[in-house]
UniProtKB/TrEMBL annotation:
Disordered: annotated segments: 27-48
Domain PhoD-like phosphatase metallophosphatase: 146-454
InterPro entries: Metallo-depent_PP-like, PhoD-like_MPP, PhoD-like_sf
Pfam families for this protein: PhoD (PF09423)
Species this protein is from: Seminavis robusta
Superkingdom per UniProt: Eukaryota
Record protein name field: PhoD-like phosphatase
Composition-biased stretches (Acidic residues): 27-37
Gene3D superfamilies tied to this protein: PhoD-like phosphatase
Length: 491
């Protein structure tokens, strides 16, 4: 597999609609103040010259605003009123053409009143028979915070956007604790559904999702979570999952699912793992206020996925695909120096995951490129562990709204990283490629089917630091900046 250079840099603002990344053709000048580069080197990979990826960017460097602005509300509402008045005055409601006119006017009214609490439909998923080329993903979104990142994301026109866990939080860390019906979690979903920025994005961006701990109702929850089935039902209602969807009828199983788009040699498979519903409890290290891995003789019977999910996972890996995106809400390849939740805490399960990916993605008759997507950590980063498999890469994108601009040192003491990260606040991890990202961001996977290349990027969502260091909210022109990038070849 060929791996190209990873870069840090701002986007060179090119023409709109320049959808596909063409690394071999693009040699763009960096913007001022962008000298730092984060370069991936390896003795079994080679790099291309430094350059910038021509993503769409903020038009004329104007500040980002909420998707549905007051002007749009007023304009749309006036348009709707005029259209309905025309229907009533001319009396054209009696003809077939009048029915179409009335429907259009009603749609305008519905759009104009979306912010008032009326439930609006989700944008439909792309045609599964057609290939897709851009998938966005992210995690950790507080429903009571501003969401200018939706404006940024809309500029990129992703085919699918993955909500990778912790879509809601509530004011309490444990949304369901002590509640039989998880009222606070339901209220959080309602608040998100009524958020003007989310409503605008919901209508325009096809979305899929998976639950992590906070939307499962309890922080750092696992299989013993007594609220997990209530949380599942709330998720079904929030996402408008059809009543006949097979996930609604699973007994004691999570929300795992998969999708495929395209045909021939242009098939993208998306696998969403549920890493909370059936996961075993981690070992807790009281001295380090964190989790510690199970030893070699301790992890027998411990699991990340249920036996049924493992069986299902192996089955979907046998389907034809050229690119496989595998979402785990918890990190996979990190060695977790500070004991946050990750797959290495149950080593046997991590080895099983990698073994299955190797078995089916390197199959001589159906080779494919696997890419791991993750969230949860409130930082962004790229990972690769040659000791496990040098061809397997992971992108962590976390979070949409409250990435940690502060870190913790190894002794568990919170230490400031603003405006420049302190060395002891950066988790030491040999599997991480370069530094982590400490500003609000999201991930992007771009597939160039013609050049047979996949481009992984972390993109700045908007401004940062405001939540934790109490700065005044501001929406600056850094939105859309490429913070990390990595390119891989499709077999």
């Amino acid at each position: 597999m060929m791996v190209h250079k990873s870069t840090n840099g701002k986007i060179n603002h090119k023409e709109e609609n320049e959808r596909m990344i063409r690394l071999d053709d693009a040699v763009d000048e960096p913007m001022d103040g962008d000298d730092e580069k984060d370069t991936l080197t390896s003795n079994h990979h080679h790099s291309l010259p430094e350059h910038h990826i021509p993503f769409p960017a903020a038009e004329d460097h104007k500040p980002w605003h909420f998707i549905i602005s007051t002007k749009k509300y007023i304009h749309t509402t006036l348009t709707a009123v005029l259209a309905l008045s025309l229907v009533l005055v001319l009396g054209i409601g009696q003809s077939s053409s009048s029915s179409r006119a009335s429907s259009s006017a009603a749609a305008i009214v519905a759009d104009s009143t979306a912010g008032s609490g009326g439930k609006i439909p989700w944008a439909p998923l792309p045609d599964f028979s057609q290939p897709i080329s851009r998938v966005a993903f992210g995690s950790c979104m507080k429903e009571d915070m501003p969401m200018p990142f939706w404006d940024t994301l809309l500029e990129f026109h992703p085919d699918v956007t993955i909500l990778g866990g912790d879509q809601v939080y509530t004011q309490e860390q444990d949304a369901c604790s002590g509640q039989g019906n998880c009222t606070l979690l339901k209220q959080a979903y309602d608040q998100l559904n009524n958020h003007p920025s989310f409503q605008g994005a919901k209508q325009r961006l096809p979305m899929l999702g998976m639950l992590d701990d906070h939307d499962y109702g309890l922080n750092d929850c696992y299989a013993d979570n007594p609220y997990k089935d209530i949380a599942k039902d709330l998720y079904f209602d929030f996402m408008d999952i059809p009543q006949d969807d097979e996930r609604r009828f699973r007994d004691n199983e999570g929300l795992y699912t998969s999708y495929e788009w395209g045909s021939g040699d242009q098939i993208l498979q998306l696998i969403l793992l549920d890493t909370r519903y059936s996961r075993s409890e981690f070992l807790y290290d009281d001295e380090k206020w964190a989790y510690t891995p199970y030893g070699h003789d301790q992890d027998h019977g411990k699991q990340f996925l249920s036996p049924a999910q493992w069986e299902w996972f192996e089955q979907v890996l046998q389907r034809p695909a050229n690119v496989r995106l595998i979402l785990s809400t918890q990190q996979v390849l990190t060695q977790g120096e500070w004991g946050f939740e990750h797959w290495s805490l149950i080593p046997r399960e991590l080895r099983k995951l990698v073994r299955l990916l190797k078995k089916y993605c390197k199959h001589v008759k159906n080779p494919s490129l696997p890419v791991l997507l993750s969230g949860d950590r409130h930082i962004g980063a790229l990972y690769n562990d040659p000791a496990l498999w040098d061809e397997l890469y992971e992108v962590t994108a976390s979070s949409w709204t409250h990435t940690i601009p502060d870190g913790w040192d190894p002794d568990g003491v919170k230490c400031s990283t603003y405006p420049n990260p302190a060395v002891d606040c950066i988790e030491q991890d040999p599997t991480r490629i370069g530094d982590w990202v400490g500003v609000n961001h999201f991930g992007m996977v771009d597939v160039d089917w013609q050049d047979r290349t996949v481009h992984l990027t972390l993109v700045r969502a908007e401004t940062s630091h405001a939540y934790y260091v109490k700065q005044k909210w501001q929406y600056n022109t850094d939105a859309g900046q490429v913070l990390k990038s990595l390119s891989l070849d499709i077999p």
